[in-house]
Design a protein that fits this description.
Layout lengths: L1 E6 L3 H15 L3 E7 L3 H11 L2 E3 L2 H7 L4 E4 L7 H9 L3 E5 L6 H14 L3 E4 L6 H12 L5 E11 L1 H6 L9 H17 L3 E9 L2 H4 L7 E8 L4 E10 L7 E9 L2 E6 L6 E4 L3 E4 L6 E4 L5 E4 L1 H17 L4 H7 L3 E2 H20 L3 E2 L1
Parallel strand pairs: 1-2, 1-4, 2-3, 4-5, 5-6, 7-10
Antiparallel strand pairs: 6-17, 7-11, 8-9, 8-18, 9-10, 11-12, 13-14, 15-16
This protein binds nicotinamide-adenine-dinucleotide (NAD).
The site of nicotinamide-adenine-dinucleotide has 26 residues, from helix 1.
């Protein structure tokens, strides 16, 4: 049994708790404890999930036997916790982005290598079955040589303005949203970013006292020559039919593929909620035959995959095998996504093309 903990038990940490708890029911993992610096959050999560809680992760590591830890603190607060966990000999699943600095990612990688532990980054877009097929088709040459691509990922304004207004100014549409698709595109193209040019707007959120970009439009040219535009924003109206609007497309010498991962074909309208669309492939809440709540979907699969990878290593499996066969995003993937995202922010600052 892999002994797990969660650091940062807020909105997304809750999803990780669900995933670990399910693996506990299957006898694969045990959720040993959770940690959050916010007393009220910690208290309510401990009660809800009947699990031990700590305000300080260092104390948690001292007192509990833990193999693996998931880090779901705000985007700019992953680094120190990750490095400490790695130096304490824990495997880590770090929420995207791995870190908001290249130096932070490199420090984590050094600590992981020194302690012979795993870094996995929760880039769950890789686990969406439509993306897996898209990636397979792109790599197989079905569309000939890819010439260009386009991505958009946009959140409703409540995400920066309500969900985490306290730390949105330390993040951006690229850090919070863009890195998901930056990783997916890198994974499909099997190529790293070469240079970028980006423009951005700060109109709405700054007026609301949240000092960050509303939207960022970035052109990334990859080492294999493919250019991909990433349009990201987090100011869609509250009345938009889904919390996230997103899609990806590639055009090649022999074809085109377009994947709308927001409107998957089911639209509804109710007096209570107005227009809605479902993205049930991400997280679907359902029940097992005993009436227990079960969560399914690629948002859960990517977390479970981390535990399965550790199990593989514990059973004598090699990291080389994981790198060769698993669809997981590891440290190098997190680092390369961060390299592209930092170059985008540098281009926003300098208004120039930035080479990576
Ligand atoms: N994979 C995804 O689709 C996805 C979706 C949403 C968020 N995220 C990522 O998850 C992370 C958390 O986002 P969220 O929406 O859950 O934010 P949140 O604000 O709801 O939760 C973050 C929690 O971390 C706690 N925290 C802060 N510093 C801490 C510390 N030093 N030790 C312990 N706890 C600490 C806060 O008190 C808070 O409860 C972010 O990096 C975000 O980008 C990923």
């Amino acid at each position: 049994m892999i002994k797990c903990a969660v650091i940062g038990a807020g909105r997304y940490g809750t999803n990780i708790i669900h995933a670990f708890r399910q693996l506990e029911q299957q006898g694969i993992a045990k959720l040993v404890s959770i940690c959050d610096t916010n007393f009220d959050v910690l208290n309510s999560q401990c009660k809800k999930y009947n699990v031990k809680g700590y305000l300080d992760y260092k104390e948690m590591f001292e007192k509990e036997k833990i193999d693996a830890v998931a880090i779901a603190t705000p985007d700019h607060l992953h680094r120190d916790i990750a490095v400490y966990a790695l130096n304490s000999g824990k495997h880590i699943l770090v929420e995207k982005p791995m870190d908001v600095t290249v130096e932070g990612c490199l420090e984590m990688i050094k600590a992981a290598e020194k302690n012979n532990v795993l870094i996995q980054v929760d880039f769950h877009k890789r686990y969406d079955p439509y993306h897996q097929q898209l990636c397979k088709d792109v790599r197989s040459g079905k569309f000939g040589t890819i010439e260009y691509g386009y991505v958009h990922m946009e959140d409703r304004i409540e995400v920066p303005a309500v969900w985490f207004s306290s730390w949105a100014q330390f993040s951006s549409p690229v850090w919070f949203l863009g890195v998901h698709f930056i990783d997916l595109v890198r994974w499909c193209l099997q190529s790293n970013g070469k240079y970028v040019f980006a423009t951005g707007s700060r109109m709405k959120l700054t007026k609301m006292g949240i000092d960050t970009y509303d939207s960022i439009s970035a052109k990334v040219v990859f080492e294999n020559g493919v250019s991909v535009t990433f349009d990201t924003c987090w100011i869609l109206p509250e009345k938009f039919e889904a919390i996230v609007n997103q899609s990806i497309r590639f055009v090649g010498t022999e074809g085109i593929i377009e994947c709308d991962t927001q409107d998957r074909g089911t639209r509804l309208c109710s007096t209570k909620n107005g227009m809605e669309t479902y993205n049930l492939g991400f997280i679907l809440e359902t029940q097992d035959r005993y009436g227990n709540t079960v969560y399914k979907g690629y948002g859960i699969e990517s977390i479970a995959d981390f535990v399965y990878n550790i199990q593989h290593l514990k059973n004598g499996g090699s990291f080389e095998n994981l790198k060769k066969y698993a669809i997981s995003a590891f440290a190098e993937d997190g680092l390369e996504a961060t390299r592209i995202a930092t170059a985008i922010h540098r281009s926003l600052d300098t208004k120039e093309i930035v080479h990576i």
